[in-house]
Amino acid sequence: MSKTTHKPYQRTRAGCLPCRRRRKKCDQSTPLCLGCRRNHLICTWPSAGPELANTLGHSGSTQDGNPSLTHFCNGGDNVQRSIDFKRLLRQPSPLPPLFRRQPAGDLLEYFKLMTAPRMVCRSNIENPFITYHLRLATLSTSLQHAILAIGACHRAYISPDFSILAYDHYAVAVRSLKFGITEWHACSAANRAALAASCLALCWYEIIHANIRGALYHHLRAGGYMIRDLQDDSKFHQDELLGFFIEQYSYLAILANIDPSDRLKSQLVDPHTLTESLTHLHPRSPIYGFLLGASRDLFALILRTTSVATQRGNFGPIDANHYDIIMEMISRWAATSVSHDLTNQHSGRMYQAASIIYLHVSKHGLQDVTENLKETINPFINLFLQSFQQLPFDSPQWTTFMWPSLVAGSCMRDPSHRKALLKLFHDSSLQMEAVDSTARWLSQHWANMDRNPAVYGIRGLCETLSLENVLLCIG
């Protein structure tokens, strides 16, 4: 009985590099194979003979084998390239298929009803995290998954099982965004706007998730480049959409400077550019003040305040005249009348008190903290707490609590002050890990300050956090 001879199996070497690395069968469609399209991977090909090179060259890929952004932005379908932004942002549009599936549909509803309302500080305006995001999401897989990641992360606070789902959507959002930015300059303005929205949305995920490795600042730096590129595009005239992006970026980038060691400022903030950007925010916009509230001018002063702290942190001399001018401007600041809601004024006074505290402390190094300085600051701690206590626990102004709480809290020596602040955190209706983490790190700082009174103020708080290798995502 003769043996049946089998031809030795030879594994094919055809297919794109991502499919080979993943040990998956590649359908070899160009410029974007089915596997890479489905998993939002950058479909690249090995250098090959003229036949494959010619195939790629005539399929709209770039010279290095990456697919053209036209194909990516359209998702491989024949989507109209000319986008009417006014129609896109104002008219209801069909939800992408992902949003209509379960459990993604449930997460979307949770995002709309529970999460997005907690992301704005004004209740009497339209919520751009709903209106703009959901319509831009029709153009971006990354934004779709970022929205679901935010909703799942928020929901995980009360239902921890959702944390895995949040990570899954976050991973796809990052992967899809990475895919999209490879050919940013070839993309239509509409799709670039959707990618910028995705990048900024990931910042909010990091804040809600209470990331302690500074992941927010990587997204924020990329978002800043995208926004500037859209501003420089002479064909992009969507002021309201730019206002949506600029207000998010300005708010987050200004607050990033809570650490006067200048680690973040050199990467994120050009004070002149940021101050100029704030002037582009128009009070007549239907979304004006969704993060800055009635305090746009005060935020511009915070930017100048942190520049003084940075100067002191780098051991440079402080211009006393410059210091006095900023202190006077902050002291004379009054909330603008953007609404009849008194909570805007309470929130503004919280930031005003914290800014004065920050400026006082920034004039001193860790070795120059005196009892006189501490007594000078105490009245402003009282003002901060009084203003905070007047905010209803379900007020949208809670959205912006973190920066002033950390600044004022870093100087609290009186146990009654500490107890009052922790009670405010405990009674909050935000239901976000960011509230718990703020309370946790302040408590650790207070314990450190009790052992070593010199570890005082925001510099002392940053020293406490650095010992734990913590870089808070502040929002």
UniProtKB/TrEMBL annotation:
InterPro entries membership: Fun_TF (IPR021858), Zn2-C6_fun-type_DNA-bd_sf (IPR036864), Zn2Cys6_DnaBD (IPR001138)
Sequence ranges assigned to domain Zn(2)-C6 fungal-type in this UniProt record: 15-45
Gene Ontology CC: nucleus
Predominant location category: nucleus
Keyword 4Fe-4S: no
Cell compartments where the protein resides: Nucleus
GO MF annotation: an example: DNA-binding transcription factor activity, RNA polymerase II-specific
PROSITE patterns with a match to the protein in the record: ZN2_CY6_FUNGAL_1, ZN2_CY6_FUNGAL_2
Pfam families on file: Fungal_trans_2 (PF11951), Zn_clus (PF00172)
Source species, domain of life: Eukaryota
UniProt KW keywords: Nucleus
KW Translocase (keyword) present: no
SUPFAM superfamilies in UniProt: Zn2/Cys6 DNA-binding domain (SSF57701)
Protein name from the UniProt record: Zn(2)-C6 fungal-type domain-containing protein
Lineage: Eukaryota, Fungi, Dikarya, Ascomycota, Pezizomycotina
